[in-house]
Amino acid sequence: MDDQRFDALARSLATGTSRRLILKGLIGGALGGMVRLVQRTGTLAVDPCPIGQAECNGGCVPSCPPNHIFGPQCQCICTLSDSHVCPNPLHVYDNCQCACDDDLECPGEQEIVDQETCACG
Length: 121
Fold this sequence. Notes:
The chain has helices spanning 3-14, 19-41, 82-85; strands at residues 53-56, 59-62, 68-70, 76-78, 90-92, 98-100, 112-114, 119-120. It is an alpha+beta fold. It folds into two domains: 3-41; 53-120, no CATH class. The strands form four sheets. Strands 1-2 form a two-stranded antiparallel ribbon.
């Protein structure tokens, strides 16, 4: 790059920009981003439901707890699996919690005394 081009570039970078011009650029960028979002998704990504509720099949329903997703009729379905969450001999059940396997039998007359560990006593 020759000296004259370098000096011209340095002068253009050193020239101050007004706050009004910067503000216009920021607002224009934000509006452009929203327009692009509407073009891509068909809507602004604004949640239409109140806090504690979620949109499902066009209506607002109570939000699912953690580790759940909505099923076809907006029922909450557990997304956990035994192998990723519960240590043996525990299994994930409908309430999405680890619990003892129904088939677990304690020796003799003992019963399960701790559902979290399947301890017999």
